[in-house]
Amino acid sequence: MIAASVIRDLQALLPASAVLTVREDVAPYASDGLSAYRCQPGVVVLPDTEAQVIAILRLCHAARVPVIARGAGTGLSGGALPREDAVLLGLAKFNRILRLDPLARTARVQPGVRNLAISEAAAPYGLYYAPDPSSQIACSIGGNVAENSGGVHCLKYGLTVNNVMRVRAVTMDGEALEIGSEALDSPGYDLLALMHGSEGMLAVITEVTVKLLAKPERAQVVLAAFDQVETAGAAVSAIIAGGILPAGLEMMDKPAIAAAEAFVHAGYPLDAAAILLVEVDGTNEEVSDAVLRVHDILAASGATEIRTANNEAERLKFWAGRKNAFPAVGRMSPDYYCMDGTIPRRALPAVLGGIADLSAQYGLRVANVFHAGDGNLHPLILYDASTPGELEKTEAFGAKILELCVAHGGTITGEHGVGVEKIDQMCVQFRPLELQAFHAVKAAFDPQGLLNPGKAVPSLHRCAELGAMHVHGGQLPHPELPRF
Amino acid sequence: MIAASVIRDLQALLPASAVLTVREDVAPYASDGLSAYRCQPGVVVLPDTEAQVIAILRLCHAARVPVIARGAGTGLSGGALPREDAVLLGLAKFNRILRLDPLARTARVQPGVRNLAISEAAAPYGLYYAPDPSSQIACSIGGNVAENSGGVHCLKYGLTVNNVMRVRAVTMDGEALEIGSEALDSPGYDLLALMHGSEGMLAVITEVTVKLLAKPERAQVVLAAFDQVETAGAAVSAIIAGGILPAGLEMMDKPAIAAAEAFVHAGYPLDAAAILLVEVDGTNEEVSDAVLRVHDILAASGATEIRTANNEAERLKFWAGRKNAFPAVGRMSPDYYCMDGTIPRRALPAVLGGIADLSAQYGLRVANVFHAGDGNLHPLILYDASTPGELEKTEAFGAKILELCVAHGGTITGEHGVGVEKIDQMCVQFRPLELQAFHAVKAAFDPQGLLNPGKAVPSLHRCAELGAMHVHGGQLPHPELPRF
User: CB distance B185–A414 less than 8 Å?
Assistant: First the structure.
């Protein structure tokens, strides 16, 4: 609970409509995209100027009240999960594009601007903003920075951190920092990278300057079918080894293909064990050349069928299956749980095998959809939340998948963040030493631990209670996870 | 001075040959590549195992003795400048390539391994390490991480931070951190980016895992002459706007052309006000296509002459002038001072004009050689150190150039770091707020301030004494620099 005096002080700072306290008003903020976790926020504030953000943070800092920043609420790891004793600071009103400079190819925007809205505003100049999380129609750029979001095209165009030049961010004590520059590199410690993926734990972002890219002249997609997942995995490595950097390189396994095909009729081969979608972009000549080379590599890698989209309509159809894979899987099962581990590309066959074994062991179906090019897996565990105990079993299965990723030299999250969802797996990923370094960095910005407490970085105490199930850098053999 | 007891303790830890105390033994360590600054180190230690590094740091931490890490000593901003009261920790003996994995395309190396040695070791597999500072034959990878080094090819292939996956680093209290992962992204705060460019202030690097890239099938260079520097600058923007990402995009002005031509007879047009060297790489087809497009853009941008290297020998000859520009300028003047500012590309004409004005004002000649594609200027100020007062005048001129870069939205360093050289300009680049954030990050790793004290980040007190000559983000008009 938040003291009535704090709420009165917030009401004095902000217009009446910007302070929500009534149960039905705050209810929509009770969860983000990880809707299995819910909590009523103590109060929701909706400022629309940086001065208000500063005032709110100073007030909360003085009163020692925790603050949780929230963008569009599309996050999948519970990074914006409220607390009853905390102020939920919604940034939805920060929705203006402040400046779009087509010559410098930059856009200065407020944090609540939707990812896709930036590309829409840049389109008249032939420009776009590259990172494209699948929630891009709804998710906001401030949240993208907080989670260092990726997307289908991040293999070629990088993560959010590679596409942002500057941010303004207000620390818990109400100071607005100017971070980054328009130059290639900025002197001093790399605070810009530090803000990316910090999950709202270091500062509240109030402005973001992103890079815009020229829209490629042409994009083309090649679809390849394989009769074994392992062969498909090897083809992924062969493409990269062949010096091709696809704009997208996606893989779907048999259950995912079946679900997608039943849903959008993309024309996927239903008998395939796995399909790859390889998109190349660039000038007309570059694309023609790359498509031929991709075709050759896929053929040499044992693809049982290779199709090239003949026109833009067919290209979009090929993608429609992949882009709708999550809702398609949703039709197969009352509920599904989307995991987000990352592994070195070479470990693809072994980890997929391990997931299949775990699926049998837990008695839960899995569909695999993933950014194969950068080793970012999205296993979807199918379950029924109305069956007692099945959610818990699903979460345990998911945790095992993440530990499997770590055991193969990967990480527990590719692009969805840690939040509350994967906080225990951080104990698997990191040793106490590295966790201590994280806590020290946190303390440099927020010594009282008031910004988004309990997210992203577990306490050493929590890890110790979990039995310090540490596997580091994949140096220990799968599947036995050591306990020490 | 370092207490005799500390030196005795160091001698007890290390073999006799690894602790240098005699004046003639420590003399070679008195400066790095910024040789105008010199200081005899109190003692030089040359460990060859991480365990020794840990023991040295623990000993110094307990005795409150500062430690300055040094790689190959090629740094140009005095980042490895010793102190009489500090231990100079040389990492030259850490010169082993620990593992080269051609399939995963990674190399795990010790920090003293030379930059070029990595590419040499990778060459049999058709691979190379992309960042190529001009000192790459001598500079070491640990120093590259500490300075976040770039090079001619960083426009396309990124800085060191974009090409390193993991580091091991020992903090001042002797704890070895494992930072980064082989995956695209790592959870937790981005300590990997934080280590890059931290100039030895946060931890001592003991191992680096770099990405290797496939050698492009072909590279080709186009040389273009312009009768105005401004036109050349506009052509740079036109190439990037045309969707071409050159592997290198370099510019030289008339004095630099004259010096280079007299030195290596590269065949440069001596009547040009500026030349551009545009290198494209990729597959044979891609390069053929890109060369034609570059040619068209250069012609449309008003180039007075365009030449394409007809063969590899001619390509290397075109580059020879650029690669030898610094020693070539060295033949024109007893001394020169190489600056390293970065500006947004659009500011090229204005900043070059400003440098010409300052040159007249200070009565010192300047040759401009730079990475035009990423706006990284290297103005070389010609002077004679034997003329009383000329070094001071040169340094004042150099400082003005950096302030000019900041006033145009640029930064005071592109790839050479801050070190001792540009520490006062950090007061120009940043407000006290951002400097406080840097100090807080420093304190998170090294609360006693024992690692490389006095470098990179100035104290607020120092900035206040300089008169807080703050220009931020280029929002204030050139040429009047505000004082407040």
Answer: yes
Q: Which of the given ranges, A26-40, A453-467, B343-357, B400-414, has the highest pLDDT on average?
A: A26-40
Contact between chains at A103 and B175 (C-beta distance less than 8 A):
no
Is a pLDDT exceeding 80 seen at residue B76? yes
Strands A97-101 and B164-170: unpaired
* Range name among A145-154, A410-419, B378-387, B468-477 with the lowest pLDDT average: B468-477
**Of residues B178, B409, B440, nearest to A473 (C-beta):** B178
Kind and range of the H or E element at A53? helix A50-63
Q: Flag if A434 and B177 touch (Cβ within 8 Å).
A: yes
> Strands B87-90 and B43-45, how do they pair?
parallel
**8 Å CB contact of A375 and B184:** yes
Runs of H (alpha helix) within A93-206: 115-122, 141-147, 154-157, 191-195
Provide the phi-psi class of B262: left if phi over 0, else alpha when psi is between -120 and 50, else beta: alpha
User: Over the stretch B172-208, which tens digit does the pLDDT of each residue have?
Assistant: 999 999 999 877 778 899 999 999 999 999 999 999 9
Taking CB atoms and an 8 Å limit, are B472 and A343 in contact across chains?
Answer: no
**What is this model's ipTM?**
0.87
Q: pLDDT of A194-234, one tens digit each?
A: 999 999 999 999 999 999 999 998 999 999 999 998 899 88
The span from the CA of B146 to the CA of B275, in Å, is: 32
Smallest CA–CA distance, residue B175 to chain A, in Å, is 8
Site from B77, B145, B190, B377 to mutate, A interface, most A CB atoms within 10 angstroms: B190
Interface contact A472-B445, CB threshold 8 A: no
Q: Looking at B365-454, list the stretches that DSSP marks H as alpha helix, in order from N- to C-terminal side.
A: 390-407, 426-429, 432-445
Residues of chain B contacting A188 with CB distance shorter than 8 Å? 197, 418, 426, 429-430, 434-435, 438, 456-457
Cα distance between residue A163 and residue A109, in whole Å: 13
For B183, the closest of A154, A190, A344 (CB atoms) is A344
Cβ contact A176–B433 (<8 Å) = yes
Which domains does chain B show, CATH number per domain? 4-90 (3.30.43.10), 97-214 (3.30.465.10), 218-309 (3.30.70.3450), 333-465 (3.30.70.2740)
Element housing B287 (H / E): helix B284-300
A145 interaction partners in chain B (CB closer than 8 Å): none
- Nearest-by-Cβ selection for A285 from B162, B196, B289: B289
Q: A96-129: per-residue pLDDT in tens?
A: 999 999 988 999 999 999 999 999 999 999 999 9
Across the interface, do A184 and B422 touch by the CB < 8 Å criterion? no
Q: How many CB pairs under 8 A join A and B?
A: 237
* Range of lowest pLDDT (A468-482, B57-71, B107-121): A468-482
Put simply, the answer to whether A456 touches B187 (Cβ < 8 Å) is yes
User: Mean of the pLDDT values across residues A449-465?
Assistant: 93
Closest Cα in chain B to A106 = B344
- B86: phi > 0 → left, psi -120 to 50 → alpha, else beta; which? beta
A66-104 burial by CB neighbour count: b if 16+ within 10 A, else e?
bbbbbbbbbbbbbbbbbbeebbbbbbeebbebeebbeeb
